[in-house]
Give the backbone structure.
Amino acid sequence: MESERRQFYRIDHPVALEFTIIPEPEDLDSLQPSHFKVSPYFMLQSHLHELDQEANAKLNQLGRSMPILTSYLQLMSKKIDLIAQTLSANQQMGDEIKTEIVNLSEGGLSFHNNHTIELNSLMVVKLVFPEGEMGLLLYARVQRCSVLSDGADIGIEFLKMPESCRTQLARLIIETQARERKQYLND
């Protein structure tokens, strides 16, 4: 976790967090994080974010040779996003879980827990970012567990994270840092 702190920017951010400790599988690459009941809206947003990553790469290539078609396809993408946001509005992104402030980076996060968790434990983590209606299901491994008077400070490292998830997290972190900097300069 110490080397991870040097590799990624970190922010303190509100997140609805849920996790489940799972047994060590023979092959982590063959598993998909499916240990939580999630709403169809959660999955819709998740799939649309993945498709956006693929579409943006292709639109960048297409934009050089066919700018009018590219503009049209970008407009259709915005239209689909608006429909998805409308469908998801006022709907739960998953089960009732409380929002807490976590220390978040592209490589992992740290959070407060009522109980200690054994080092190197494998877990499935569900993260919901309420302001962006974005949610992620990820594997993680416990890298740090510091005992506190009221529980434990847990540090986890994300495992087998798809590039689309990493991009979403990076965008969230950059936007949050820019918002905090702007607020700091205005104060």
Remarks:
- Residues 113 and 152 are 5 Å apart (CA to CA).
- Confidence is low (pLDDT under 50) at residues 1-5.
